[in-house]
Design goal:
alpha/beta, binds NADPH dihydro-nicotinamide-adenine-dinucleotide phosphate, 12 strands, seven-stranded parallel β-sheet, Rossmann fold, 312 residues, binds oxalic acid, single chain, 2 domains
């Protein structure tokens, strides 16, 4: 039996789609009449404290999110494999966000927007993409997709990961020892890391001060599409005010929804989106997890299982 426990999305619609795809395999939702001991798989997003109660025969947990940081912090998470969402459609959507914001900052959107508002004709030629370095933190599923899509645009590409991830056309760095060298020639810093104790707060004043200066007019730029826990918002506010950063694009926040009184809302060169960089679509999610469930019932191993020790 598959149990759905989803918050903030249309659980009924997902359940209908799973039931159709998996029939006659039983699919249930909270509130349905079923024996928790019959549940072999649970599909979750933002599970409540009681989500796993009574699930004594659970074989696996399926995570609607690609990021599992919150799930791994669940106080009653059963000791069974956690399978996260990995999907071409999700990667494409994230790369859409990354490419849009990288190209916007490269072409000095903030500057020309301000000139337009002031009716100011001020000819300034941004550097070519070849002269602009994009540094991506996290070279996993999403980071690798982003570099594939940025490469044809001509940007200099740099990556930083925990272990070496050699990719053609990308200057790779790994581990804490190479972090500063990675930052030193980065003009646009893109964060696609998972949130772990090692990566929490990595977007801070010290990091910003190590980015390349002189590459982009107005200062280097950060783009955070991973988790709010990666960023120190007070440091971002200060860095945008004193020119340590030229601009920031933020999709995620320390507290979500971003509180109405956050100073970030009113900063001209801070581009806020409400955690919408990429969404797991119902069609691809149902296809992906149904395949995994059917394969697993047929004795095949689970794929994209989270390493709990690493935290991602
Ligand atoms: P992956 O697990 O595929 O990749 C993670 C990458 O980060 C790997 O390259 C890994 O290194 C690297 N990494 C992990 N820890 C460290 C560290 N301490 N130092 C340096 N590098 C590190 O994740 P995905 O690409 O699938 O997703 C990344 C994150 O994006 C998710 O965890 C989620 O939080 C976020 N996300 C946000 C969305 C949004 O809408 N805003 C939507 C979807 C995801 P290595 O290669 O050596 O393992
Ligand atoms: C995810 C997200 O992790 O939407 O998939 O943030």
């Amino acid at each position: 039996m598959l149990l759905l426990h989803l918050s903030d999305v249309d659980e009924a619609s997902w359940a209908r789609a799973f039931a159709e795809k998996l029939a006659p395999y039983p699919v249930v939702r909270r509130g349905d009449d079923f024996d928790p001991a019959d549940v072999r798989y649970i599909f979750v997003w933002k599970p409540g404290p009681d989500a796993f109660n009574g699930l004594t025969n659970l074989a696996a947990i399926f995570s609607l999110g690609a990021g599992v940081d919150a799930l791994l912090r669940h106080p009653r998470l059963p000791d069974v494999p956690v399978v996260r969402f990995v999907d071409a459609d999700l990667s494409q959507r994230m790369s859409d966000y990354v490419v849009a914001h990288v190209t916007m900052h490269h072409r000095q959107y903030s500057r020309f927007r301000a000139d337009q508002k002031a009716h100011r004709w001020s000819q300034f030629y941004p550097p070519s993409a070849q002269q602009t370095n994009v540094g991506i933190m996290g070279m996993g599923v999403l980071g690798q997709d982003a570099v594939q899509r940025l490469r044809p645009l001509g940007f200099g590409l740099r990556s930083w990961s925990r272990t070496p991830r050699p990719i053609e056309g990308v200057t790779g760095f790994s581990g804490d020892a190479e972090f500063d060298t990675f930052l030193a020639k980065t003009d646009i810093l893109v964060n696609l890391l998972p949130l772990t104790p090692q990566t929490a707060g990595i977007l801070n004043a010290e990091t910003f001060a190590k980015l390349r200066r002189g590459g982009l007019e107005g200062g280097p730029v950060i783009i955070n599409a991973a988790r709010g826990g990666h960023q120190k918002e007070a440091d971002i506010v200060r860095a945008l005010a004193d020119g340590v950063l030229g601009a920031a694009s933020l999709d995620v926040f320390e507290v979500e929804p971003l509180p109405k009184d956050s100073p970030l809302w009113d900063i001209e060169n801070c581009y806020i989106t409400p955690h919408v960089a990429a969404i797991s679509s119902e069609a691809s999610g149902v296809a992906y997890f149904s395949r995994i469930l059917v394969d697993h019932e047929a004795g095949k191993p689970l794929v994209n299982v989270v390493d709990r020790g690493r935290g991602y």
